[in-house]
Queue: 4 jobs
Job 1
Amino acid sequence: MNPICKYLNKNTFGQTLGCPSILEISIMTLRIALLGFGIVAQGLTGILRDKGKALQSSIGFDGRIVAISDPMKGSLYHPEGLDLNQALKSVKDTGKGYDAQYKVVI
């Protein structure tokens, strides 16, 4: 059974119901825009980078960060998803913003 089924399919008495087969095979892709790129947003970015494949195979979740906007660090956008390694590395290395290697700065 898909792990997410135990949370989604409960009746009013709290009993777990059967899992619809569509949850077993479908992948939910979410395009995510981050407003601010502080500690929490960088943490989420690291989780999606490190655990993205596991989330996709275990519960069918595919989260893609397509935009980051921060008043101090600048803004990035790519419709297919940003390179999370490069975004995190750039902020870590410079301490403030994205380096000139990004061609998609808006």
Note: Residues 27-94 form a domain with the Rossmann fold fold (CATH 3.40.50.720).
Job 2
Amino acid sequence: MYNPFEYRGFWWLPGKYNENVEGVLKYNPGEELVLELTGSLTDLKKVTEDIQHDIILGFSSNGKKITLYKCLSISLNVSMPGFPTQTFIASAAFIGEHFESIEEVRFKEVNVHYFYLEEWLRISGMNINVEQNNRERYFCIHYYQPDDIKVLIDNWILAIYFTVNYSRDRADGLKIKETAVVSFQFKEGLPFEEILNKIIGRWEDFFTFATGEAAFPSAIKAFVEKDSKHRETEIVYRRINGSTTPKKLTYHDMLFTFRDIQEKFGAFLNNWFSKAEVLRPVYNLFFGLRYNPGGYLQYQFLTLAQALETYHRRTKCNYVRSPDKYEKMMNEILNSIPNKYVEWLKEKLKYSNEPTLRHRIRDIFKDFGLVVDKYIGDVKGFINEVVEARNYLTHYDKSKETEKGKDHSELYNLVKKLEVILDVCLLYELGFSLDKVEELLSRNPRYRNLLENIE
């Protein structure tokens, strides 16, 4: 996933090996998987059509089986005289195995290594002792493999296991590297996209939330039962979000680490996954910004405001009056106007019993104000600013352009404060007590900096 590569070889469609053509598969982190063919896999009569293939098979010059998944032709050039060339982009590549159809792409186990994982876990099996006797110094290195960590989630297992590798040469001396891997294990093989979107994707949201940086896999390996054998394949796919260059990060920078949840790791993960369906729109909005930082402030603000509103809608009471009282009130109103205006007014009042954004934010402060108030400052003023800025940036009412248009620093402050509130909401949903949430925030450099610069 992290290292670029090129595979030269022969490529063909399932069941059409005799029609294989020469080409090269190229990949750079953060970019598309591109297959450039010297020849064509497509009937040249269809040159004007959109050309897609579920599967393209390949065999590289260094002997690797390769399956390209969900491929789209982006160019098909035909020269007379000459020969055709064709270029595909693929959604994913499975290196080490051939799958004849999408239905065959199922895995019983997928193992992923992430940047920052070892720092987040802070678990080591290495013990180094230094002894000195006169002029001689002895280094004693002892290693024990830490126990695997396993959590049952629904009918599958998330496991974290540990390995160690060492190398020695004259130039670099002795190198010892401990590595942790997250393993997703299933009783039966699951479709690739289900694993990626519903399981690995939700774990990556969790890990991103914990570390404060986009979860970025450095390597993905999967195992499949085929021909009565347990076979391994490497998975590469283009990530549509997240940096391709991980930054330096220590556990001090993280919102919480494994040690903070070690005793309740299983409960916390099950909370995260069990609430994912209800909170999915909140996750999508909130982590969409985490995976793609640096967008326009206006977009960041509107996204966070929408995430906060959606969180309230999904977790709190979503009406102002009881349904019975509201229905009675609506009947009285509609019965009091001419029939020709009834449908028009019903449409206008369709959402009139739902809380306003102002009401929703006030509700959230009632639940979490003891934690977030000090990061906000003037709570009433903050709520007014959020509501007014959201209304202006949604409708761009020209008459309010001077009055409601925020400058860069004002909007930036609103964005940072909305992030605090959403962090607190999700920490609470994850299973942290409010006292523990306050502890996590107070020790984090990002929140300490916000507190020092509160406006």
Note: The radius of gyration is 28 Å.
Job 3
Amino acid sequence: MLVPFFSAGLGTFVMVFYGGFRLRSRGHLIAAAGYLVALIGYIGGVGMFPIDSAPHNAVVGTHVVIWLVGIGHVLVLQHLVRKHADAAPPVVPSAAPANAMALAMAAARAQRRREAQQLVLQNPVAALELKIGRPDIPNRQYDDGGLVDVNHVPAPWLQEALEVTPEQAEQIITVREQRGGFLTAGEVLVHCPSIQPARFELIRDRVIVFPSDRLLKGIAVEPGTRAAGAGKRSRVAAWSSRYPEGEVQSRTAGYRARRSCALGKKASTPYFPKRKAPTGGPSSATQLTCMFAE
């Protein structure tokens, strides 16, 4: 109301246009165009006719009428706009920025996991010192992006970090105690049937394995499968007995690394000293390196 009143009707079209835009009303927008045309006609008529002449007075009188009508029009529009605003649902802040930030943080964690996995392959001593894959150890300085060492992490942390059920976490613990630990991440899927392949693929990039003490001592074979009479061929024979060629079949594509190890192929990044292997089995360097091959 104040704009049309104090502007002597010159600003009426502005307020009517704003109200029509807020209400999405075509009629009010057309009325705003009419007020603008009347304003242009008033300015042109006042300059065209002599002062106090009949045409001049008619132009001024018409403008005064339009001015008063415009004040009433703006008052009605103010009421309608307030009513429309009260009836409109509250504006909910967009979650797009928060979602974008969450996606960026998830991508950053995935990148940190990849970097930590490369460190495990290239420098396992440093990786062990940095406690990679051990969320159960407090005050770690290295952020590995959420990796979990299934050979050492307790069941509650397996359940939380890998988002598995308590039964699945207990099965992982049971299998690793029976077998002395897992040699590759793929063995979790092979020996823990409660974890389905589709579920394992979702958590696969969070799983790593550091060899347990039992694995380092004897390549973690079941009782009764180690060759009698130790000697030079005991560890390789144990490996071969545990992984005969016919057994090396993958339930997922990611299990191909273990297949390469069982068939005696060289690992891509060996970091243990090479030793001559007896005929029929892979070298010790290949065996231990393949623990980190996935």
Note: The two ends are 74 Å apart (CA to CA).
Job 4
Amino acid sequence: MALLAFVLRSVAASWREPISCSPSLHTIAQSGLDRAPRIRNIHLIASAPAGARQTGRRRATTMHRTTKILAVIAALGALPLAPASARPADPVFTPSELPYPFSAAVQVGDILYLSGDIGVTDDGQSLVPGGIEPETRRMFERIGATLAGHGLGFDDLFKCTVMLADMAEWPAFNAIYREHFEAGRYPARSAMGVNGLALGARVEMECWAWNPQGKP
């Protein structure tokens, strides 16, 4: 509708004053004119009486302006139309079953962001006993359950951030970590030693998963 209104205003203006347009539209219009039939009535105007010549000039000017407008319309019609921009979907929050103020995961666009997880018991009040290895296995169980709740698995993870209470336990953590991924398809990962994790945990891991919302 906006284009139609512009065209109608342009046609009306062409009967009153010269056309003014941006350089890009001028180029489009000129390209259209180069392909439009030339007005070949100059010899008729020259041989006509003065009044007729003046009328002929006005008609030629009007035809010339109208041809410019039609060339612009034709060029605009050939341009690809941009798709209507849709409002992005609101984030979708997955509540955590633990008694703490955070979500288990949040879907934003095509990415599922998982909160950092540790090797806690079902009630979230304490850690599983045994240190780095039991805690790591329990942590992966919890992350796997969150992924499964969204129809995903570990293969859908593409970014992980690992926090270790003691970097000396990094090899033990890695041995369990690699069990959950296909070789050659490990997520991008950062690992760091930190001073203090929730409940005194030995390890915590935060993950991002690819979860396209347009998938069938």
Note: The first helix runs from residue 2 to 14.
